[in-house]
Amino acid sequence: MDIGIIIAGLLTLAIFSFLYRDNPVYKMAESLLIGVSIGYFLVITWDNTLRANLFDPLFTGGEIDLLIPFGLGLLMFGRFSSKTSALSRIPIAVLIGSGAGVAIPAMLGARTLAQMSATVQPLLTESGWLNVSGLVVLVGVLCTLAYFYFSREHQGTLGRVAKTGTWFLMIFFGTTFGYTVMSRMSTLIGRVEFLLSDFLKLTN
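RESULT FIELD:
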């Protein structure tokens, strides 16, 4: 059996030991996972980001304009000293500002405009039948917006519409939670299948 499969199987069993109770074997596997993940992340960051996009073009390719991000990156380390901590606010401000400038148009198009276009659907199909899904989406959006309308007290017709909006919200939260559970279950099934087939050789 491959030594990698043996190590992976033992570490998987160590993680599963937490189902019994918290124990030193689980803590060892957890710490090993965190340490290996951080080490892998640092290597990938150095090789694919710092060296490939900064140091090689700057010192080998002669791209002097990269001195600006290099200097801003060095200012980040000013957080480690109280005397120079104020300098770290400069790269943080640049990072937040540029990140917001890139993220806002992308999120506006991918989420807001896409959701609005998906909401505006014809209520009749090409064959003349009622578009039930479009009607449900329209009612759900209007009722949910009524729930978040706080300028008037939720009483009477507005209260009933807002209460219907809460049902749509609960359905959304429930489906999101169910999707999360199913994704975790698929991961668990994959680990159990690995233990039974590759590690223990109980199945073919």
